[in-house]
Specification:
Blueprint (H helix, E strand, L loop, with lengths): L2 H8 L2 H7 L3 E7 L5 E7 L1 E2 L4 E6 L4 H7 L2 E7 L7 E13 L4 H6 L7 H14 L4 E14 L7 H15 L1
Antiparallel strand pairs: 1-2, 1-5, 3-4, 4-7, 5-6, 6-7
Length: 166
């Protein structure tokens, strides 16, 4: 997919709504060769998906060995809206808590008091730092079931139209 095609998909209004959500599902290949798919908080900075994790997370050795990832950001309503993204994970170990981590967890419903307590817990737990997992999209597809469909369903629609014409 060319960069301008990726940008076009990610700049659609529905894509922007999905990129403003809290959670994505990160798919990768584990060190034992089996697939993994984990929910993880993220933020979109306009060109990259940024996720943060602990320095001892089991996914890190796997991502170092095979940085190819797929992300799914979707809704829980009918019809679902689904943003699929593929890319390569770049790992960036940082001291302290990355600003993105605090931002990506900022939309959960918390009272101001809960937020203060949560931030205190985060700072004491992750005092040794975190790892930023940064994914620059190399492929993207939006499925909204109104203007776009999964490719297999698009094929069925095309076949049905051919049958109806025939």
């Amino acid at each position: 997919m060319r960069p301008n095609e990726i940008t076009e998909v990610l700049n659609r209004p529905i894509s922007k709504e999905l990129l403003a959500r809290d959670l994505t599902r990160l798919a990768y290949v584990a060190k034992d060769g089996t697939p993994r798919n984990v929910p993880i908080a993220f933020t979109w900075n306009g060109s990259e998906i940024v996720m943060c994790t602990t320095k001892n997370a089991p996914k890190l050795p796997a991502l170092r060995g095979n940085p190819a990832v797929a992300l799914t950001i979707d809704t829980e309503v009918h019809p679902p809206k689904i943003l699929l993204i593929r890319g390569r994970a770049e790992l960036d170990a940082v001291d302290g808590i990355p600003d993105e981590y605090l931002q990506m967890n900022g939309t959960y419903e918390m009272t101001p008091e809960q937020r203060v307590h949560w931030e205190s817990e985060v700072r004491s737990l992750y005092h040794e730092g975190m790892v930023r997992i940064v994914v620059t999209p190399t492929w993207a597809k939006l499925i909204d079931f109104e203007t776009t469909l999964p490719s297999a369903v698009e094929e069925l629609v095309r076949r049905r139209a051919e049958r109806q014409r025939g």
